[in-house]
Amino acid sequence: MKKFDVIVVGCGAMGSSASYHLARKGFKVLCLEKFSLNHPYGSSHGKSRIIRTAYAEHPKYVPLVQRAFELWLELQRDSNLKILTMTGALFVGSPESPLISGAKRSARWHSLQHEVLTPTDIQARFPLFHPDPDQIGIFDPSAGMLYPENCIAANVDLALQSGAKFKLLEPLSEWNVSNQDSSNPEGKVRVRTKKGEYESDKLVFASGSWLPHLVKELNLPLQCERQVLLWFRPIKDPQKFRPERMPIFSWWEKSGANFYGLPDVGDGVKVVGHHGGEITDPERIRREVTEEDIRPVREFLSRRVPYANGEIISSQTCMYTNTPDSHFLIDFHPRHKNVLLVSPCSGHGFKFSSVVGEIVSDLLSQGKTRHDISLFKIDRLISPNTNQNQ
Ligand SMILES: Cc1cc2nc3c(=O)[nH]c(=O)nc-3n(C[C@H](O)[C@H](O)[C@H](O)COP(=O)(O)OP(=O)(O)OC[C@H]3O[C@@H](n4cnc5c(N)ncnc54)[C@H](O)[C@@H]3O)c2cc1C
C-alpha cells in the first residue's frame, strides 16, 4: 500500500491550494480527484471569480482576503499564469441593504480605502449602470477578478514541483481511521478507490458539495444550490465593458435579489443571480440552462445595465455548498484530529482559496493557525446527538 503524509480529497479551488501549500511545506501529498482537472461539474469552473475587500458578509473576512491577495500575487509570479486583474468593485443597493451596510461596516472596521457614491455620482462615473434614486454605491478599489482555471492549474503545477502526486479520475470510495492507541493517538488513515488503497497520517476533505456524502456520520446541514452563469454580448459600447473600464459589480435590489457581474475579457460580460437557485444534489443537478434561468437576469440587465443585455454567448451551471449561516466550514472532524474538513464556502469561497491552502498547512503542521478562523467552526453545524462514529 502506498503511504503519504496527507491525502487531499478533491482538486477544486480548496484541494488544489491545500495540496500546493502542504507540498511546499514538505508534506508528502496525494490528491485524489473524482473528475479531470478543471472539470465543469463542481464549484470552481467558469472563467472568472470576484475578489473584493470591503467584505459585506463579515469584517472578519477582511484580513483573510488581504492575505489571499498576497498569495495570489505570489502564485502569479511563481507560475507565470494570469491569475488576477484588478478592476475595483462597485456595490449598489439601498443604504440599509446587507450589501451596502455590510461593506461599509467592514470598510470602517478596518479603515479600508473606499468611496460612498450617490446615484448621480454612479451615473457620472460609470454611465453603464442605472441605479434608482434611493440606491447608493460603495466603490472598493481593492477588488478585481481571478481566473479560476489558471489558479487551479498553477496550484497543481507548483505542487507537482514540490513532489505532490495527483490522481485524477480516481474518486475516494471509502475511508477510515484505524489503530488509535496511546502510542499513535491520531491513528492511520486508510482510503480506498477503485484503483487501489492508500495510507496516510492525515486526511483533508476538500470535496465541495460532495462533502456530506463522504462524512455521512456527521449529518452536516449543508445544501447544494444550483447556480447559472451567463455570458452576454454587449449591444453597445463593447469597449466600455472591458476590465480597464468596468469594475466588477454587485447589486442588491429592494426585492432582496442580488445580481453580480464581471467585465468582458473576451468571452462576454458575465452576469449571475447570487443565490435563489434550486436546492439539489451534486449527482442529480440539472445541467441544462432554460429560459426560466435567463429571464430574471435579463430583467435585471434591462433595468440596470441595458447595454449588456445582448445575445447570450454561453452558459454553464455551477454549485454552491451552503452552510445555514453562509460562513465556511474549516475544522477538524470531531472524532478524528487528523481529518480536516475544508470546503463548504456558501458561494463566496474562491477568493480565499489561496489563504485557505495556507491555513490547511498551518493546521496540519502545528495544529493551529495565526489566521482568525473562528467563524468556520464545526460545532455550530452539528447537533450534540449526532453519532460521529466512522
Ligand atoms: C456560479 C458560481 C460563482 C461563484 N463566484 C464566486 C466569486 O465570484 N468569488 C468567490 O470568491 N467565490 C465564488 N464562488 C464560490 C467558489 O467558487 C467556491 O466556494 C469554490 O470554488 C469551492 O471550491 P471547492 O474546492 O470547495 O469545491 P469544488 O470546486 O467543487 O471542488 C471539490 C472537488 O472535489 C471533488 N470530489 C468530490 N467527491 C470526490 C471524491 N469522492 N473523491 C475525489 N474527489 C472528489 C470534485 O470532483 C471537485 O473537483 C462561486 C461559485 C459558483 C458556483
Structure description:
- By secondary structure, the chain is α+β, with helices and mostly antiparallel strands.
- The protein has two domains: 2-44 and 149-217 and 325-381, FAD/NAD(P)-binding domain (3-Layer(bba) Sandwich); 83-145 and 223-322, D-Amino Acid Oxidase, subunit A, domain 2 (D-Amino Acid Oxidase, Chain A, domain 2, 2-Layer Sandwich).
- It has helices at residues 13-24, 61-79, 98-109, 119-125, 148-161, 211-214, 291-304, 353-366; strands at residues 2-9, 29-32, 49-51, 84-86, 89-93, 115-117, 136-140, 144-146, 165-167, 172-178, 188-193, 197-205, 223-232, 248-252, 258-262, 269-274, 279-280, 312-322, 330-333, 336-342.
- The strands form three sheets. Strands 5, 6, 7, 13, 14, 15, 16, 17 and 18 form a nine-stranded mixed β-sheet that branches. Strands 1, 2, 9, 10, 11, 12, 19 and 20 form an eight-stranded mixed β-sheet that branches.
- It is globular, with a radius of gyration of 21 Å.
- Bound molecules: flavin-adenine dinucleotide.
- Flavin-adenine dinucleotide binds at residues 9-15, 32-35, 42-44, 46, 49-50, 171-172, 206-210, 214, 227, 229, 272, 318-320, 343, 345, 347-351.
